[in-house]
């Protein structure tokens, strides 16, 4: 259903370049398309967006739809334009109108597809705190927009720069934010470990911080958070086996027992026999 909704929004964005519009918007579209190239057209949109008042929400919505349409048509977006426009984009993300937030999130998803993935990671890390705050607003469609945007942008980008703001997000008092962050960390670790046989040192340096996260939030007061942490440890143990053993050795016996069960669920009995002496068990030396 996600892929269907994504393809639908993509066709709608491209359609904005051609469909019939109210006279005032049609004139603005003509001014935008009169610019020499795609980058100039998008810059025109962002400059116009900066000049809009709060009450001009329909114009703001239209300008962002135009940016999406131009991105989709050209299959390209310069990350520097996004970075330079980050504050006006953030302002739209915190708007009280659900239609504005939804269009802004769709625009960011387009950027995540067509920007340089590594360089867009810096932009995404700037928006992550705002998205996390959007996960517990009272309006359901705004929550859903932030949730979907986070998932798709993280999946499309897979940038290390997203890890630090995600780990900071775990301090949020809302359990739904902590659960979301943990699932995003699982996604990052899983995708990266599958695409790289030799784990990059850049990713390795975050392993200890993720390990500390497991140790801290395994005792969270909310069961949904604790269950998410167990899944995180399963992924962590596969990707960083030596660090998982070290982590377990620093935990109390109850937490060790809980996490060993997580590992056991992912192994056959044969594999269990081979690993029975690992993952934090201490052997007593015979005298």
Characterization of the model:
The protein is an all-alpha fold and 287 residues long. The chain contains 17 helices and no strands. The chain has helices at residues 2-15, 23-33, 38-51, 57-74, 79-84, 86-93, 98-114, 117-133, 140-157, 163-169, 175-195, 201-204, 207-217, 223-239, 241-249, 253-265, 269-274. Helix 11 (175-195) packs parallel to helix 14 (223-239). The longest helix has 21 residues, at 175-195. Residues 268-277 have low confidence and may be disordered.
Mean pLDDT: 86
Number of helices: 17
> What Rg do the Cα atoms give?
23 Å
Global geometry: elongated
Which sequence of SSEs, written as H and E, runs from N to C? HHHHHHHHHHHHHHHHH
Give the fraction of residues assigned to helices.
over 70%
First-residue to last-residue Cα separation:
63 Å
Main sheet makeup: none
Name the poorly predicted regions: 268-277
Structural class, judged by helices and strands?
mainly alpha
The counted number of beta strands is 0
Strand content: under 5%
How are the elements arranged and paired?
Elements: H1 2-15, H2 23-33, H3 38-51, H4 57-74, H5 79-84, H6 86-93, H7 98-114, H8 117-133, H9 140-157, H10 163-169, H11 175-195, H12 201-204, H13 207-217, H14 223-239, H15 241-249, H16 253-265, H17 269-274
Structure at a glance:
This protein has 287 residues and is mostly helical. The termini are far apart.
């Amino acid at each position: 259903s996600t892929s269907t909704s994504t393809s639908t929004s993509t066709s709608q964005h491209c359609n904005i370049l051609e469909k019939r519009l109210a006279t005032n918007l049609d004139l603005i579209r003509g001014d935008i398309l009169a610019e020499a190239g795609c980058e100039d057209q998008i810059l025109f949109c962002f400059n116009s967006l900066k000049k809009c008042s709060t009450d001009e929400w329909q114009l703001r919505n239209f300008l962002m739809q135009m940016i999406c349409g131009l991105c989709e048509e050209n299959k390209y977006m310069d990350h520097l334009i996004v970075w330079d426009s980050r504050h006006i984009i953030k302002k739209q993300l915190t708007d009280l109108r659900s239609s504005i937030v939804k269009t802004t999130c769709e625009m960011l998803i387009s950027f995540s597809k067509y920007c340089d993935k590594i360089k867009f990671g810096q932009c995404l890390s700037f928006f992550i705190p705002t998205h996390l705050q959007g996960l517990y607003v009272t309006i359901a469609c705004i929550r859903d927009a932030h949730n979907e945007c986070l998932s798709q942008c993280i999946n499309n980008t897979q940038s290390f720069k997203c890890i630090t703001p995600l780990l900071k997000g775990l301090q949020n008092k809302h359990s739904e934010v902590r659960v979301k962050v943990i699932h995003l960390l699982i996604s990052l670790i899983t995708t990266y470990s599958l695409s790289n046989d030799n784990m990059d040192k850049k990713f390795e340096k975050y392993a200890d911080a993720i390990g500390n996260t497991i140790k801290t939030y395994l005792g969270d007061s909310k069961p949904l958070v604790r269950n998410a942490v167990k899944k995180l440890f399963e992924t962590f143990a596969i990707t960083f086996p030596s660090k998982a053993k070290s982590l377990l050795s620093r935990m109390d016996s109850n937490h060790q027992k809980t996490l060993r069960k997580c590992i056991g669920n992912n192994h056959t009995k044969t594999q269990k026999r081979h690993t029975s002496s690992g993952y934090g068990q201490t052997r007593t030396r015979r005298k």
